[in-house]
Design goal:
The complex is a heterodimer of chains A (about 325) and B (about 350). In chain A, a hairpin with a 5-residue loop joins strand 12 and strand 13. By secondary structure, chain A is α+β, with helices and mostly antiparallel strands. Chain A has a 7-stranded mixed beta sheet. The radius of gyration of chain A is 21 Å and the shape is globular. Chain A contains 9 helices and 13 strands. Chain B has 17 helices and 11 strands. In chain B, the strands form 3 sheets. Chain B has a 5-stranded parallel beta sheet with strand order 2-1-7-8-9. In chain B, strand 5, helix 8 and strand 6 form a beta-alpha-beta unit. In chain B, helix 8 crosses helix 13. The chains are: A alpha+beta (about 325), B alpha/beta (about 350). The interface between A and B is large, with 30 and 49 residues.
Amino acid sequence: MQEIITLAHGSGGKTTGDLIKNIFIKHFNNDILMKNEDAASFILSGRAAFTTDSFVITPVFFKGGNIGKLAVCGTVNDLAAVGAVPLYLGCGFIIEEGLPLKELETIVEAMADTAKEAGVRIVTGDTKVVQKNAADKIFINTSGIGIIPDGIDISGYNAKPGDKVIITGTVGDHGCSILLEREKFDIYADIRSDCAPLNKMVGEVLSKTKDIHVMRDPTRGGVAATLNEIAVQSKVGIKLYEDRIPVNDQVRGLCELLGMDPLYMANEGKMLIIAPEAAINDIMGVLRNTVYGTKSCIIGEVTDEHESRVVMKTVAGGNRIVDMPVGDQLPRIC
Amino acid sequence: MDNLSVAFRDSKLASLLTEKLSKYRGGKINIMEVCGTHTMSISRYGIRSLLPEGINLISGPGCPVCVTPLYFINSAIELLDEKDVIITTFGDLMKVPGTSSSLIMEKARGKDIRIVYSPLDSLKIASENEDKRVVFLSVGFETTTPVTALTIRKASEEGFGNFSVLSANKTIPNVLKILALDKDVKVHGYLYPGHVSAITGTKLYHELAFQYGIPGVVAGFEPLDILHGILTLVDMINGSKKAVVNEYKRVVNEEGNKEAIKVTDQVFCPCDSVWRGIGNIPLSGLVIRDEYEAFDAWKVYNLKPCIAEETPGCMCGEILRGKLKPTDCGLFGKKCTPENPVGACMVSSEGTCAAYYRYQGV
């Protein structure tokens, strides 16, 4: 019989202990976690960055990853986006009873593998089990701490007119992949989530030049939402060029069919980088030689016109506002 | 050429067309794009910003969500009082405000509302939930209706007992005639909807051209389609040519799609229909035929359409008829925004107001 998670796994007794030992410690395996204290302790030096994120996704397993990989990438990328070197993660699991143990282990394994790739350690955690229908299979929260090296000042408030806007690869892959798998539209397309830890790529860029003004990973709401946030925070305009924005053919096709816009679809393995023109060649040179940045493109620039707005020159030559998304994009009628 | 859509987005050809259009020096002309997808494309590609001052684009009544009357949403919400009802709908309808609620609010309150891409998906949901009753909310024009008709026919053939359709489907020809006769609306030329025409063929537009003297171009939805369509219309209007030109021959022919017309006729028959903001237009809607009444949610649930008042100040009617621009409405961008739409034109991304809202100030 298939082993499943029961309320006993969250009771705090022996079953919980077994679960921690046989799954979490087995895979996360590091000396800080193994001490099994109420809190992890470690020494930090320098300016710390601290972030947290919760992950709820249907389906839990998708092309290109699963909720575990996503939970590590999300937090690692948030730390990387402020220029921090991610060091330690904590994670909280809320599991719906009935989840097959095997699925949990696959998720935890993905977290361990991704943490290893990113060079971070998962040093503390918590597990709760809730009754059927009180959660959707599994929810994961991860928090992370990293150190920002000296000389780095990256912030959403720092974009300056004249800066260039870089995206580190194709847009919309994650959002489209999840939409396809969740909605079961009977459309066949080989679209994979781009979910990936970006801290090493960012680290390589920063070791070449620290002259980066803004960095953000355009997750929910996509490139459109993230650039709008930056335009408002920095009190600048952002101009995009539609013909320079990289989009996978299959993503473009799916978006055409459903009446959606790749600019608004989520990414989980891309970074938007805004930097002064003088640094752009260095940045692009490094990015193009990294695993996750080979398709990096300069897609626009920061201007002192149309403050707080993102405007795009379309392929037809006209201009249009790329506004903040309102709610989720929904498939259209015709 | 990578594929059809890329070919019709060629920026060099687009700038050639724009250059030709920019030389226009004649009097002011109004071109009505009838279809919501045209409205959407025009704003998506920033086409208004490419036109000279004398050429004015008016958005017509072709956004199916926008012209769906308030009572339809109210009736759908009323249906959800039945505990065993699952509503299936196209995504566009989710945010449309009814009198006191919307589908998206009802979903948050725990009602079972599911977004489908095709009406046929509703049958799948019905067979997976035999203890529930599934109601598909059907709006749309000639393009969307055939699949709904097909779904009803399939449900009938396979003996579904837990599926029905709440329909508010509409047809395009009569509303165009009403607009052509409306003295307040000065349409000099129509940009006809490519998708609708693919089903209906182009014959139905001849009457408008010959009897009412309004030329028209059937155009696709890519930027080159639209720019070229406008260029052709400008030439026709200035040359007083009363004709219909089909520039979407890769999809549209004179006769239309006979299969699609057949299945629609089999399941639906014409009826008078209320257009939000415009009012009742004779024989501009479709009702499910008596043979299929077991699948007509209006009858199955004994729903009575109750005409509801629009929010005071909402100019959707004038805007849908092309009499006013969204920016002429006092609510536009203030009380009525995509976050909090008051009128239907702000709700759908195809709606004129939503399209303008995105475009403003550039």
